[in-house]
Amino acid sequence: MIIFKDVTKTFQEDFWKKKKFALENLSFSLEENKVTGFLGRNGAGKTTSIKILLDLIKPTSGSVEFSKALGKNLSQVKSQIGYLPERPYFYPNLTGKEFVGYLLSLNDKKLKNYQSRFNDLAQTLKIDHAIDRKIRGYSKGMLQRIGFISSVIHDPRLIIMDEPLSGLDPIGRKELKEAIIREKNAGKTIFFSSHIVPDLEEISDNILLIDQGKKIKDSPLEDFYSEVTTEVEFIVNALPEKYSDKFFQNGDHYRGKFDINLKQEVLKEIVDKNIEVVSVNPIRPKLEEISYGDYL
Amino acid sequence: MIRPNKVMLVSRATIKDLVSGQIFLIAFFIGLALAILSYVGVELSYGAPKKVALDFGMGLISLANIVICLFLGVRVLQAEVENRTLYMILSRPVSRTEFYLGKFFGLAFCVLAINLILALQTLFTFFMYGGSFDPLIPWAVVFTYLEGILILAFVILFSIITTNIAATLYGISILIFGHAVPNLLDLNFVKHNSGLYWFVEKVGYIIPDLVKINIKDHLLYGKEISQSYLFSGLLYILVYITLICFITSVVFKRKDLN
Questions:
Q1: Subunit contact A89:B89, Cβ cutoff 8 A
Q2: Is B193 left (phi over 0), alpha (psi -120 to 50) or beta?
Q3: Range of the domain at B36
């Protein structure tokens, strides 16, 4: 859907100072109907990448290519994009409803069922009680919710969000995550950045990991795990004699950890001995441990 | 290509935000203060209450106009970037030029409404003291308004390329130089110093000539002024505002919105 091609962005604080690389030959692509989690520490270049994607800043070199399905020109492409910036704030003197209506009116796409879609979203995100209140009185969570509504109200094909879950309380995070998953299930392409790994783990199909403006890893979430899955855990109902030293009793069951390469061999032995298998689970480190431990 | 409907949408939202922010209530209180000051000024004057009422009124409209334009102009784009509303808007099919023009026209409309409120209050005081209508009054109000709009255009331009404080100071400098530079050429000291004269003359080509649209003296002292002078002044200021808007849109288009 989008190809980010060899993008480099340099910044210079003052003209006598050395140029700094915010992004260095960064390339990636966003697949249609997938959720791509954009992972990296603070200052890794996530927001800069998103801003280049949206033409808010120009790359020093490289390019961003949009699929023809999104539109023929930038204006048509933008009609298909919904964007939620980090810590959004809106016109304080407008009501939530007025602000969403304003952003919707800027789109070339006309929606017949706007009102019902708005009401549905407001109810789902539990902000329906505040939509006629001025934004100046909104809490951070309410701003995030109204921001999310305004980014999806026009039914875009691509939703880009910059740290959408940061600073929210646990209930707020849960509700917003559910709303993102609903959009994912509706077939939207979602690209969202975060430095909080469990959020990405829960929602993403693909993970793009960057650090200091460079791509570290770009792959489906499962591949992230498979590369680092080295052990497998068996839970069985009886103790297999051959591996008695490897299993320990845990309640009514026996648990044992084995090297991933021994999986078939152990399984065959258990089956041959007519022992009931409760489960076979690959032991995965958390994404947080993988990304911040192994790669960065 | 600039799409007028997009410009209109941005303008409408700008006006709505300012109106909801009770800018007109502030304008009303400025007007009230203006009326009280005019009244006090007139009462303290001797012999020419009509003239003082008009002089005070026009002077205070001009001052209020400049303060409002500086205040609104310096914040208009900066606040949008700081609050990230600009990112949400520009991620929609709206060009930067459309957005800038929408903001500019929205502000210009609000300043016009404020000017009209203040002008009506001034005229009320003027007529109360027995003043009669002079065709130059509307011209003076229009020129005062356009002077504010020119400063607004300059301040928005400066706010894109520098800090808020610097933008305000540059805006005030334009106002001061715009009134001072054309008069400097009449000073004997400048006339007798060819190098200085050349320099001031060249600066005069760049800095807007605000003396050209200052017709308050003509209005107060009944000096003759031709229609062609008034129309050429109007054309001059409109062209200048358009030029500044054009430069601003070019700079804004190229700016990285960090």
A1: no
A2: beta
A3: 4-254
What's the distance, Cα to Cα, between the start and end of chain B in Å? 25
Going by C-alpha positions, the residue among A250, A180, A226 that lies closest to residue A37 is: A180
Residues of A in contact with B83 (CB under 8 A): 88-90
Q: How many domains in chain B?
A: 1
Phi-psi region of A17 (alpha: psi -120 to 50; beta: other; left: phi over 0): beta
In this prediction, residue B75 carries a pLDDT of 85
**Pairing mode, strands A277-283 and A231-236:** antiparallel
Among candidates A85, A89, A106 on the partner chain, residue whose Cβ is nearest the Cβ of B9? A106
The answer to whether B123 and B40 are in contact (CB under 8 A) is no
Residue ranges of domains in chain A: 2-220, 229-295
Which tokens hold the place of A116?
């019902």
Q: For the whole prediction, is pTM greater than 0.90?
A: no
**Pairs of residues, one from chain A and one from chain B, whose beta carbons lie less than 8 Å apart:** 84
Residue B257 with chain A: CB contacts under 8 Å: 51, 56-57
Please tell me if residue B89 touches chain A, with a CB cutoff of 8 Å. Answer: yes
Distance from CA of A103 to the nearest CA of B (A): 7
How far is CA B113 from its chain centroid?
Answer: 13
Dihedral of the CA atoms A95, A156, A86, A28 (nearest 10)? -170
* ipTM exceeds 0.90, yes or no: no
Q: Residue B82, CB half-sphere, CA atoms under 13 Å: how many?
A: 11
pLDDT score of A291: 62
Look at residue B105 in the predicted model and tell me its pLDDT: 96
Residue of chain A nearest B94, judged by CA positions: A106
Is B84 within 8 Å of A56 when comparing Cβ atoms?
no
Dihedral angle sign, alpha carbons of residues B120, B122, B127, B128: positive
Comparing A112-116, B45-49, B62-66, B165-169, which segment has the lowest mean pLDDT?
A: B45-49
CATH 1.10.357 fits A229-295, yes or no: no
Same topology for domains A2-220 and A229-295, yes or no?
Answer: no
pLDDT digits (tens, 9 = 90+) for A220-249: 887 877 766 778 899 999 888 888 888 898
Q: Which of B91, B94, B95, B101 to mutate to test the interface with A (most CBs of A within 10 A)?
A: B91
Virtual CA dihedral for B148, B149, B150, B155, nearest 10 degrees? Answer: 90
Is B173 within 8 Å of B162 (Cβ atoms)?
A: no
DSSP A137: G
Going by C-beta distance under 8 Å and a sequence separation of 6 or more, which residues neighbour residue B93? A74, A75, A76, A78, A79, A106, A107, A108, B6
Tens-digit pLDDT profile for residues B199-224: 888 888 889 999 988 888 888 777 78
Beta strands in chain B (DSSP E): none
CATH 3.40.50.300 fits A2-220, yes or no: yes
